[in-house]
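User: quick one, fold this
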Amino acid sequence: AGCASFDGRGLVPGRSSAAEVEALMGAPAERLAHPDGETALYFSRLPAGRAMFVATLGPDGMMKSIEQRLTRQNFARIVAGSSTKQEVREILGPPGGSGRLPRQAREWWEYKFYDPGDRRVLWVQFSDDGVAREVLDMLDPEEMKPDFGAL
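Assistant:
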């Protein structure tokens, strides 16, 4: 019986089909078709899993690559003042949480991730024109709560 794989372990670029990817990883949270015929499948493990795996399929339906997108290298690609919602979604995938800051007239997206030794959160705030205005990376506030039971 099939059990979903957290990270796609066992999939082989150039040999695994789209059907094999979905059979192993489950249904994708989002599919994004690219103009070149490739398709990106986003497998969200948010918010608890703190990971977003993207399997890229070629026009022939075979997997070309699989990668974890919630990395510092990808975060660095998001530039306040120029990156758009669409670009952020293509880089990181669908957010694990979202909401609105009415006084600032901004929408926020949340991506929880692991950094060596820390549980962190990346928040991206967008103005109403769809442009990223702030990119905030900080310790997860849930991790900073005091443990009163230890006193």
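User: anything notable?
Assistant: The two ends are 46 Å apart (CA to CA).
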